[in-house]
Amino acid sequence: MEALTLKEIAKALNTKTDFDVQINNVCIDTRKITKGCLFICIKGERFDAHQFANEALSLGAAAVMISEDIEVNGAFVKVENTSKALLDLSAYYRSKFDIPVVALTGSVGKTTTKEFTYLVVNSEFNAIKTQGNLNNEIGLPQMLFQIDNSTEAAVIEMGMNHFGEIEHLADIGRPDVAVITNIGQSHIENLGSREGIFKAKMEMTKLFTKDNTLIVNGDDDYLSKTKGMGEYKVVYYGITNPENDVYAKDIENNGLNGIKFTAVVDGGEYPIEVNIPGKHNVYNALAAICVGREFDVPMDKIAEGIRSFELTKMRLAVEEYNGITIINDCYNASPDSIKAALGVLADTDKNRKVAILGDVLEMGDFAKDAHYNLGKAVKENGVDLLITAGENMKYLAQGAK
Q1: pLDDT: is 340 or 268 the higher one?
Q2: How high does pLDDT run on average in the chain?
């Protein structure tokens, strides 16, 4: 983060302060305090960080941001709402840098696509990316504060579970290019239907102009209909269909050893290697290729970036124990990601295949049908033994039977 003064921060937030200390970082967790940072006292449903304001100062914070009338033993700035101020401050900070930003969202695959995209973009630019799950109204600002004068591009992930969240995040991050991976059933309890999920994801484009680009999965039944929905450019990717701008053919599935395919880009054909399992990762790689194409990254660098990808913890991570291969995919599953994981299991050359599955959450009234259909997917993918845990797993078991 480039340094700001507390008075500049106060002015950006339409308030005042008597202190003019220099700020070189923003923190919301006393366990991550750095010397010279601004500690923002976030007030949540179950906690109130105002009680840690003076502790933050004693740990090295240069100042604190508060919204309550408390006694502060050092520099502070007071605002009406610290959570809103965090967002507003990150938007102000983002506006100080003229760099291209790529934002990614989708029901499934956004984190893997983000990693592919970062590797592609970073091969040509000094880029930063969303770390971990910092993709919401608390996490995104922390990610934007990573930008400094050496940053040439940013790849950010945007998550949501209610209407209006993506629009708000896009207003803060101001992406030049947006990627929507697919429209599945994640968070369908809050959004009512896949149509609702589609509308929520498309909030990404509400501020788009003719200078922006939307990249979408052209094989998705909702996203394939986005042409002409705005004045912005739309780029489609998919598998085998030459009507997509970028597509994959000659797919070679090597099970746990990954996928190889030929990418057809602007009339040329390029060999691509994905060193992680699952045919669904062809889509994730294609999205990254489309971003690289928009950033004029040479295809050899795009291919090398994709080839260098390594899985993050608990996302289809392959582990070996005494001759047993475990595919650990325990990260915030959705029906679509479970189907993808079952497909990976089916593609292995192992003698006996065991699926250990737990409830998919936030499904609301769709839970029964979703779990029943997952049970059918268990059967279709040749699972030898099914072990379940959770309230809705009885429906999955029925579907499997």
Answers
A1: 268
A2: 91
* Main-chain dihedrals φ then ψ at residue 12, nearest 5 degrees: -65, -25
Structure tokens at 309: 């990808």
pLDDT in tens, 121-180: 999 999 999 987 788 888 899 999 999 999 999 999 998 778 889 999 999 999 999 999
pLDDT digits (tens, 9 = 90+) for 179-227: 999 987 666 766 778 888 889 899 999 999 999 999 999 999 999 989 8
Among 105-119, 261-275, 291-305, the least confident range: 105-119
Strand partners, 66: 78
The separation between CA 317 and the C-alpha centre of its own chain, rounded to angstroms, equals 18
Taken in order 18, 22, 27, 30, the sign of the CA dihedral is negative
Separation in Å, CA 83 to CA 28, 44, 213, 230, 380: 10, 9, 30, 32, 47
| Distance separating alpha carbons of residues 7 and 11, to the nearest angstrom | 6
Question: Residues 237-274, buried b or exposed e (16+ Cβ, 10 A)?
Answer: bbbeeeebbbbbeeeebeebebbbbebbbeeeeeebbb
Report the SS3 class of residue 389. Answer: strand
The rounded distance, in Å, linking the Cα atoms of 285 and 138 is 28
Nearby residues of 246 by Cβ (< 8 Å), 6 or more positions away: 235, 236, 237, 263, 264, 265, 286, 289, 290, 293
Q: What is the pLDDT of residues 27-53, one digit of tens each?
A: 999 999 999 999 999 998 888 999 999
Q: Read off the DSSP letter of residue 44.
A: -
| Farthest CA pair distance, the chain | 71
Amino acid at 282: V
Residues 9 and 88: their CA atoms lie apart, in Å, by 10
Kindly tell me if the per-residue pLDDT of 348 is higher than 70: yes
Distance, in Å, from the CA atom of 63 to the CA atom of 15, rounded to the nearest integer, reads 15
Query: What are the structure tokens assigned to 244, written together?
Result: 């997509």
The number of angstroms, rounded, from the C-alpha of 141 to the middle of its chain's C-alpha atoms is 14
Which amino acid, one-letter code, is at 4? Answer: L
Structure tokens at 310: 């390594």
Contact 9, 40 (CB under 8 A): no
β pairing state of 317-321 and 324-328: antiparallel
How many CB atoms are closer than 10 A to CB 331?
14
Distance CA 73, CA 196 (A): 48
| 259-265 and 268-274 strand pairing | antiparallel
